[in-house]
Amino acid sequence: MNLSPSVLSSPATLQHLPEDMTGLLVEITENEAIEHEQLFTAALDVLRARGARIAVDDVGEGYAGLQQVMRIRPDVLKVDKSLVTGVHLHPDRAALLEAIVHLAARTGAAVCAEGIECAEELAVLADLDFAYGQGYFIGRPSPGFDEPSPGIRPVCEAAMAQAVEVSDSGVPSQLVNALLQVASARGLADLARILSGVAPAIGADAVELSYLDAEGTYVEAVVDSDALFKGVRYRLDGLPLTRRVLAEDVATQVVLGTPDADPSESAWMVEDGIGSLLMLPVRSRGAVVGLFESHRRAATPWRRSQIRAARTLSAVAGPVLENLLRAEAPRQPPSRSPHGEP
């Protein structure tokens, strides 16, 4: 739903909108000045109270620029086509888009690029951490979510592969400290305690490390307990996406509410209050030995920098986990179906 600031500031507008606006995204056009800021801000508060999400449309072309955007506190920033077209040919334009992505990350907003019309533009935008995009290269407008156009999936998968395989040259000190702690773990319980404190280093609310049994039938979380492996085992036969991550040695993410969210993973995520999940295989001496999961409550995609940081942590945790497993003989906990259900 698109509304200008002047229309939204009118009391009559709110009277005609439904009381329950859950699932609706209200796009505020940026090419008009906010004349009645108090009325406009109050209207935004009403929309949010009714369950609506707020987006700012045409970012980069509008009247007041980012200053006005920050006053709106949007959930989504939709970058105007004028900044997207030919971005692969204009480094200065790419730098501006990167700044918008960083600004959005600080405020918790997602970023959507408008007018993507070729694979080269999409590749640059994926590398800049744009979570969403629209345009003729992705697909024509339609009433619902259709399959993406041929050619878009390979571009996005290549960008994801690069994100999880290539690490930045500059590693934040918070991540360095986390890596040193993981490498110095003296036992499995100690490793679990360390991991419980490293979540902020990768933009997560919580992380979990699990080991994989020799037959590849279940994973079990390493827990912070004096009683070794006191938790439950999660069978992989009911978690096809987790099984694929481990069997094919690939990374993946699940974001609740997106059309491609895996149903089996989404079910337990809803129950546990998790909005976004990042899963990475844990390797040691060339073999997959476990699973590294990052959780957060917000249903927002993981940024490339966060994926790289999680990949780095999982790489260090792999040999540590294998050595500690060899040193400590695990007890036999109860076997459960996916994520703790009897």
Describe the structure in your own words.
By secondary structure, the chain is of the alpha/beta class. The chain is 40% helix and 18% strand. The chain contains 13 helices and 13 strands. The chain has helices at 5-8, 11-16, 37-49, 65-72, 81-84, 91-107, 119-127, 152-165, 173-183, 188-196, 240-248, 263-272, 304-327, and strands spanning 2-3, 25-29, 53-59, 76-79, 110-113, 132-133, 206-212, 218-221, 233-235, 252-255, 276-284, 287-296, 335-336. The protein has a seven-stranded mixed sheet with strand order 10-11-12-7-8-9-13, with helices on both faces. Helix 7 (119-127) packs parallel to helix 8 and helix 8 packs across helix 13 (304-327). The longest helix is centred in the C-terminal third of the chain and has 24 residues, at 304-327. The two termini are 44 Å apart.
